[in-house]
Write a structure and sequence with these properties.
- By secondary structure, this protein is α+β, with helices and mostly antiparallel strands.
- It is 49% helix and 20% strand.
- The strands form two sheets. An eight-stranded mixed sheet has the order 2-3-1-5-4-9-10-11.
- The protein starts with a helix and ends with a helix.
Amino acid sequence: MRADVEALKADIEQSVALLRRRLDWDVALRKLDELNARVEDPTLWDDPDQAQAVSRERSQLEARVNTVREMESGLEEGVMLSEMADEEGDEATYQEAVDQLKAIKERAARAELEALLSGEADGNDAYLEVNSGAGGTESNDWAGMLLRMYTRWAKAHGYEVELQEETSGEQAGIKSATVQISGPNAYGWLKSESGVHRLVRISPYDAAAKRHTSFASIGVSPVVDDTIEIDINPADVRTDTYRASGAGGQHINKTDSAVRLTHVPTNTVVACQAGRSQHQNREQAWKMLRARLYELELQKREAAAQALADAKTDIGWGHQIRSYVLQPYQMVKDLRTNVETSDTDGVLNGDLDAFMGAALAARVGETREGADS
């Protein structure tokens, strides 16, 4: 076995062993058998909410078990193919085997991070909210760029993206927008993106071609289902209706169908205009409000409520979590983890995994060495 294949094999085996330990492999297999039996029991569906919860738990556990099994079988096939190719002197096939093993290694690295997603709501879908900071057109344009960046990241990972609300800027970009991102562990991956994002560039809106600094904030909260109790006093919520804006056909701008809810005690504001009726938007807005208040509670449990409040208080200097510099040099740097890259185009087109992975590992406070000790 050549040294490159031997090194890849060792790395993948180490990752598989770590994933098995984190899953508590034997316990996970027994649990999966139990969940499969429950899903096949027709009486489970007498309670649709419970049935959905069990099905979701089964799907998530099955996906983790299958990931480990597929990596093990892929490793065996890749090593066997490389050895056969090496014996026959077939370099093209040998390189194909090496590429296959490299892909498994990359998948293993992501699976290791996903194994850290053990928070109460990490497996849930997510609401992602973008708000522009002070600065008018510049900040509005930057907020629009961020919305596009996260939309591309989500779609590249097979997530569904549904626009819930958008307020356009006067000349360009957006003042605010909220999207629902749906898929496994969406909230777990995105939660570390909450905070202020800073852009430095030559402004396309400045005839003098001067360098400008713009700010926009990202807020992320989990989509919560009816099994999670969020007690909201209706008297604490102010409801406003207004005409929806943006593309949407003949219905848009003809009725006050958009709904904005304000939870007065926490000054939490949500809005929805995606539905075609005020009733639909009101129902979705209440779901969004429950999600936002649930996220606040999670932040308190994690002793991070103050950091969240600081990020939302001032969308400007001293509060940013990441800087995107396009001029005079090109660099994206996360100020919490010090992860950086000069591939600014890649990042703005949704290549965020390195930043999310580092923030997740730092937030959990767990590394491979720590898990192995």
